[in-house]
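Summary for the steering committee. One of the milestones for this cycle was to obtain a three-dimensional model of the protein with magnesium ion bound, which we needed before selecting residues for the alanine scan. The sequence and ligand used are listed below.
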Amino acid sequence: MIKTVKSVNLAGKRVIMRVDFNVPMKDGVVQDDTRITAALPTINYILDQGVKTLTLMSHLGDPAKDSKKAKEKAEKDGKSFDEAAYIRGRHRMAPIAAYLEKKLGRSVIFAGEDGCYGKKAFIDSQKDGSVIMLENTRFHKEETSKDALERDKLAKELASYGDVFVNDAFGTAHRDHASTASIAKFVTPAVGGFLMEKEVRFLEPIVTNPEKPLVAIIGGAKVSSKIAVLESLLKNAKALVIGGGMAYTFLKAQGHEVGKSLVEDDQIGTAKNILEAAKKAGAEIVLPLDQVAAETFDAAASPVAVDSRDLPANLMGLDVGPKTIALYKKVLDTAKTIVWNGPVGVFEFDAFAKGTEEVAKLVAEATGRGAITVVGGGDSVAAVNKFGLASKMSHVSTGGGASLELLEGRKLPGIEVCRG
Ligand code: ADP
Ligand code: MG
């Protein structure tokens, strides 16, 4: 477990807090405030303790990388590109400060667009109980630098803004950056917020000591992005349900016909190894029994039901069929812990969303009968939200990459600094 804000006396202290306000922006307008809302309990708790100042910092996209990409695209399309306007619309924290001010119902002082350096006097001159927001940490190359000394330069500066460091940015916890990890070298204590605490409380035990039986449902597009998580989960899982695009690499490894389905031929060896390792560990591997297929990868493609593990040459599997769903129901029935990462079909296309919707319902039902249910991964979480079932899960992770790395059994820099 990690130490949290509850373990320190915050009265009269200056708090420097890393949040994950990396929300989607369009023309300076917040498109989805989930991440902002998720940080509110910790922010409100800190303010209730009578702190001197609470200074918030976050990244918001990656200004240098994003604008380079956008510029290249504009050049390719023969369009003009206004870099300043591009960054203003997507990467400045001022609109986020204004948004937070409304959500919080108290004033949020923006520390200025000139970056994160040289703000100590400004922060210390604010009246007690002030909330201050810094500019996007990624405007400074030190934030993400691979050189620890370079990161330390920014980290030291940020550390000078607080007597206590609070990290509640789970979504960035897998990054070893100045504002997420290096900073903890220069300000103690370092503790987690409630969001960080909840993420760790649900995700960590799945790898260390889950309440058994554990069933893992791993789907999504590619085997290559999920190898480590499959290997990590099969140590504790009674069953690994493998669905989505990645199932076809496994089916091909078993000698099935996969038609035009998504297959990573260079991962067939890996799939064979995982099948072998599962056998040794006594974990059942559950692959699709039947499918919903199509001739093309297209929202308007006509769905074809294929009552077999094998597909004809002209079709690609885009969702699991009813027999597979019935099998999932049986496998999930006795599970005390269920972890789900990756949709079992192309749920973005309505005609191929049923399998993923049924999985979401089965997992929600399991929560109802007392199982611990955890959903992680950007697209899986989007799916659960799309089907309106997020509140029916024990935990829906706010961090895609971070949750995956925790499930892989890795130590995350942004979490390790909160151990006290
Ligand atoms: P997550 O973000 O939850 O970790 P991934 O990013 O690994 O999930 O995978 C999500 C993507 O996998 C979705 O965009 C979905 O359309 C795709 N996908 C699911 N099933 C298939 C399939 N049978 N063929 C191709 N793509 C698929
Ligand atoms: Mg994804």
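Key point for the committee: The chain is about 35% helix and 15% strand.
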